[in-house]
Amino acid sequence: MSVNPLIISCPIVGAELMKEDYPYLPTTVDELAEAAAGAVDAGASIIHLHVRDEEGKPSQRVDIFDDVTKKIRERCDVIIQYSTGGAVGNSIEERCAPLRLRPEMASISMGTMNFGEDIFENSENTIRIILDAIIMNGVMAELEIFDCGMMETVDRSIKKGCLPDKFHIDFVLGVRGGMSGRIKNLVLLSEYLSPGQSWSVAGIGKYQLPLAGHAILMGGHVRIGIEDNIYYRKGELTRSNKQLVERVVRISKEMDRPIATVRDARDILDL
Ligand code: KMH
Ligand code: ZN
């Protein structure tokens, strides 16, 4: 394997936007599979997955996760990571339900926070229940970290024996209610990491590109996609997840950081 290739994770849809907000939003099974295949074609090795129901609304329905997973698998090989965050207000049962399909990875948020106007509930009890479901289904966890306090929760969870031996860490910066995407926040968060811990950064909105650039230089990985940012540049909507991924691939290659294949990503994450 090349030296520390860059894992690109692509959050193709998320749970916050509707087609009225962003006309190119993939929502149907076919559109989600097409978005995933495009991102993988461009260089993504992980698809961070939320799904939508027939009305285009965010859903944690197992049958839809199953349909989308199968459709993606028909198109390409990629690590599929289910969201257990779902949409704000989902019950714990809804959030855990798709895990029974045993995806390769699942994200779990490591603390309660203001999320725009809403409250994203992740009490220690909620975290424990979701983590248990992740572990029971043999899924690799990606811990979503929105501020430094959540890294302290990670440390506490390790000491209490609640976390699996291996996990990936994703810093999500720029949500209103969490830490902003200023570079100094990424640097500060990186100081909490144990040696050898794999990590990535998901910059929200205008923070996506500068944080990705810094993570590439710092040896971390990146999350790039429409869940986090719908603009290609100020005032110009991106046309697709693929378009966002393609730019980061170009930047990384220019910085002499090769792009991880799906196989590289599985090796790095020990999947
Ligand atoms: N939709 C947010 C409330 C995750 O995917 O794990 C939570 C979220 C985090 O998107
Ligand atoms: Zn998500």
Could you give a short description of this structure?
By secondary structure, the protein is of the alpha/beta class. The protein is built from 9 helices and 14 strands. It has a single domain, classed as Alpha-Beta Barrel (TIM Barrel), CATH 3.20.20.70.
Descriptors:
271 residues; alpha/beta; TIM Barrel; 8-stranded parallel barrel; 9 helices; 20% strand; globular; binds (5S)-5-amino-3-OXO-hexanoic acid
Explain how this protein is built.
- The chain has 271 residues and is of the alpha/beta class.
- The chain has one domain: TIM Barrel, CATH 3.20.20.
- The protein is built from nine helices and 14 strands.
- The strands form four sheets. It has an eight-stranded parallel β-barrel, surrounded by six helices.
- Helix 1 links the parallel strand 1 and strand 2.
- Helix 1 packs across helix 2 and helix 1 runs parallel beside helix 8.
- The protein is globular and about 45 Å long.
- It starts with 7 loop residues before the first strand and ends with a helix.
- The mean pLDDT is 97.
- Bound molecules: (5S)-5-amino-3-OXO-hexanoic acid (KMH) and zinc ion.
- (5S)-5-amino-3-OXO-hexanoic acid binds next to strand 6.
